[in-house]
Amino acid sequence: MSRLRLVLFGLGAVGLAVLWVVATTGLPPVGTDVHPYRDAAVAAAAAHATANVVSSINFDQRTFDTLGEETILLASVVAVTTLLRPADDERVEPPDPPPAVLPATRLAGWALLPVTLLVGADVVLHGHLTPGGGFQGGVVLATALHLLYLAGSFPALQWVRPTRWAPLLEPAGSGLFVVVGLAGLVVGAGFTAEFLPPGVLGAPLSSGTVLLLNVVAGVGVGAAVVSLLGQFLRQEIVIGPGAAP
Amino acid sequence: MTVLLIIALLATGVAGTVVALTPDPQRQAVTLSVYGLLLGTVFVLAAAPDVALSQLSVGTALVPLLVLLTVRTVRRRGGRSGGSGSDGS
Description:
The complex is a heterodimer of chains A (245) and B (89). Chain A has 245 residues and is an all-alpha fold. In chain A, 69% of the residues lie in helices and 2% in strands.
């Protein structure tokens, strides 16, 4: 069995090596000043007053690609929610009293909660200016919520009821992403086209739809991660194997 | 800068090998997290802070956490113990 795996791995490795050599020999040399893609991307970003060129690529020049990524997240949330729902031979039981948490851990959890929320919002809202954006900021926002669990307050986390609103908020974020794209089709040049006034390069309210899409993606990604983690935590804590039939 | 990048790349390679050679999924989650941190450093040194942020949030925090939670749940259910490494040959 493991021999077969080794042979399969060998075949794959040889194939990868051949393709890698073929692919890289045709590349332009590294470290030169010739970057056709950079020149085009930076010019396009500047034309729409987006200071962070990476955000411009993700949310303006290749928005359709990002929509695909957002959809992958949506699909994974749907899959996890479906697979991890209480099965017939399982039952929801009240959580065990949480194990004792060190006071220092509890303090760190509660103290970092507002800080992490703030950092997450900052990463989302400045995604068009500085490194970051909806995806990274969304994950930070989602992890902030789970500091409650780290602080030993699973009841507090349950009180927030993430498994109730997050699976609804995630498709809402993805849906709004599509709505912004369709607005480009109606008002602008085509699906996901820029249609808002770009503003001044580097200003907090600039870059037109990039900022809007960052916020929408931040909501979607944050809700996606919250519901993923929420489902896994719920599976771990409150769903137990039922009585044997 | 180039020296730092080479060091970070080598460290990432070593860490990746360590992850692949860690037999126990629970420990693997931790080594994966360290590997993710090193990979994030490579991205920062390669002037790609956006990717580094994604790598840190997803690769260092989220994926190991999901792996840990899954391993815990499976073990608690009395799943087959010692299912690490051996592929039932």
